[in-house]
Amino acid sequence: MSTRREFISNTGKAMFAGGLVTLAENGDPRMIENKFIHHVYFWLKNADSKEDRAKLLEGLHKLSAVKTIKNFHIGQPADTNRDVIERGYVFSWFCLFENGTDQASYQVDPIHLKFVEDYSHLWSKVIVYDSVDAK
Questions:
Q1: What is the pTM for the complete model shown?
Q2: Which stretches within the chain are classed as H helix?
Q3: What angle do CA 119, 120, 123 make, to 5 degrees?
Q4: Are the beta carbons of 130 and 97 closer than 8 angstroms?
Q5: Considering the domain 32-131, what is its CATH architecture?
Q6: Alpha carbon of 128 to those of 6, 14, 43, 125: distances in Å?
Q7: Mind listing the pLDDT tens digit for each residue in 29-67?
Q8: What is the pLDDT of residues 79-101, one digit of tens each?
Q9: Positive or negative CA dihedral for 109, 121, 43, 51?
Q10: Quick check: 99 and 37 in contact, CB under 8 A?
């Protein structure tokens, strides 16, 4: 029977050897590489409506069922206040895809199309930032 320290050490080695942990070129394991990032910001028509806010949040949770989404995050403005910070949006929708092909598939996925059909009447503005690795 191994100790907890030995187990953790051996598990880490196995993950690294198995390719489950990939280090960035600069050796920084925090850097996300070779992924497609899709970040969407939503402004509501009725910004003060708790009902509209709840409906859009419900829709974003439904949208997370798209199979090509590797990871996602639903956010709202943080309680920070500096001149460079945009706080007018209601929700941000961050998705991580393996590649551009998976993101393109997401755009025509029936779940995504249904989301736009069912919830687009709630928003007044949407801004999308798509990004890939800087070369």
A1: 0.77
A2: 4-17, 50-63, 100-108, 110-119
A3: 105
A4: no
A5: 2-Layer Sandwich (3.30)
A6: 46, 38, 12, 10
A7: 888 888 999 999 999 999 999 999 999 999 999 999 999
A8: 999 999 999 999 999 999 999 99
A9: negative
A10: no
